Amino acid sequence: MIRIITELALFAAPFVAYALYLVATRADVLHPDSWPLRIMTGLVIVALSLVAGSFIWLTHFTGSPPGSAYVPAHMENGRFVPGETK
Predict the structure, then answer these.
(1) Is the pLDDT at 60 greater than 90, yes or no?
(2) What does DSSP say about strands 84-85 and 70-71: parallel, antiparallel, or unpaired?
(3) Contacts with 71 (C-beta within 8 Å, 6 or more apart), sequence order
(4) Of 7, 27, 33, 82, which has the maximum CB count within 10 A?
(5) What is the DSSP letter of 65?
(6) Mean pLDDT of 34-60
(7) Are 38 and 18 in contact (CB under 8 A)?
(8) DSSP secondary-structure letter at 2?
(9) DSSP run (H or E) holding 85
(10) pTM of this structure
(11) What is the pLDDT of residue 3?
(12) Is the pLDDT score of 65 beyond 90?
């Protein structure tokens, strides 16, 4: 769940930053002329790049090391042993 929230926040970040820019320049944030297609296209490209970059970063720098084996959760002497990588 936290990963989904993180990805949504990364996707929304460029749009929020642009909205803050519009507020700072005293432009009308909700007016369609403040959000032209050229700007929206750029924001979508930046947002998708952030999400794709975070996927690559998470894949590369988190998780188990290469070659590790997953041992699933099991019962051992009546005690629950959670899954782990070895």
Answers:
(1) no
(2) antiparallel
(3) 83, 84, 85, 86
(4) 7
(5) P
(6) 95
(7) no
(8) H
(9) strand 84-85
(10) 0.73
(11) 84
(12) no
Q: Is the dihedral of CA 65, 69, 73, 75 positive or negative?
A: negative
Give the bridge partners for 74, in sequence order.
81
pLDDT given at position 32: 94
In this structure, the chain runs to a length of: 86
Write out pLDDT tens, residues 7-36.
999 999 999 999 999 999 999 999 999 999
Contacts of 12 (CB under 8 A, 6+ apart): 47
Alpha helix segments (H runs only) across the chain:
2-24, 37-61
Residue 64 tokens, joined: 């188990």
* Amino acid identity for residue 49 in this structure: S
Q: What does the DSSP 8-state code read for residue 64?
A: P
Bridge partners for 80 per DSSP: 75
Q: Is the pLDDT reported for residue 38 higher than 90?
A: yes
3-state secondary structure (DSSP) of residue 32: helix
